[in-house]
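pinging the channel bc i need a second pair of eyes. not urgent but kinda urgent?? the chain im working w is below, pasted from the shared doc
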Amino acid sequence: MSAETLRKVQAMRLIDDIFMRFAFSMCPQSVQVALRIIMDKPDLIVVEVQTQKDLPSILAHSFFLDILAKDANSTYYDIEIQRKDDDAHPRRATTHASATETMLRQKNEKAQHARELVVIFITEHDVLGAGLPIYHIERTIMETGQQFGDGVHIIYVNDEMAGHSTPLERLVHDLLCTNADDMFFPELAHAMRRIKSTPEGVYEMGSLSEKIHREGFAAGEAKGRAEGRAEGKAEGKLSLVRNMLKKGVLPLDKIAEYGK
């Protein structure tokens, strides 16, 4: 493992999605602490945590859930780290909600018995722009102002509002920390220490980081080669058409066919 990889591991924060997934998979209690604060439910009990949950689709784009948790009341929570503003677009949140709800729906289950779902986007910037630490989005009936009651709830947590005053501000502060000693919540600090201060944690996190980097690089190379071949093929056709036009060897409609 390179020194550069080790340096990157030490610089990682919980707001980095790969780091949070790894930390929360190692220390599920961290998920419970975060959800208790975000949901403002001090007695919330998490009974199941999955990370990097694959949501395949044969009809649309497949994607992964960063963290999928379930509480003692069978409410599900899709927790997503969104550092890029474009990735936190409201339509992406509703797409996550729809795909996750479909995945959770059991065969032959009646819609009114479907599980409650909370989609939580933790964003590095104030994507919704109102200067609030947290946003709760619910579908409502415009004419009455009543909630629609579809069982889907969307929450945005704004990481620009880190501080020391409220539990939510302290949680956001901890998500942005690189050093466990600077964190407020013992469970989050413990998760960070397990990764950054133990040989096993450093090795596993570093290996995972390098693997993702290699796969991303390989995918980029493959995409580049494919684009290069396509560009070369297109340029070859264009050159052929130019030569035909110069020589006048075929009618224009026939030459056009060679350029397709």
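so The two ends are 49 Å apart (CA to CA). and The beta strands are 46-55, 63-71, 76-82, 117-123, 134-137, 152-158. — does that match what u expected or am i reading it wrong
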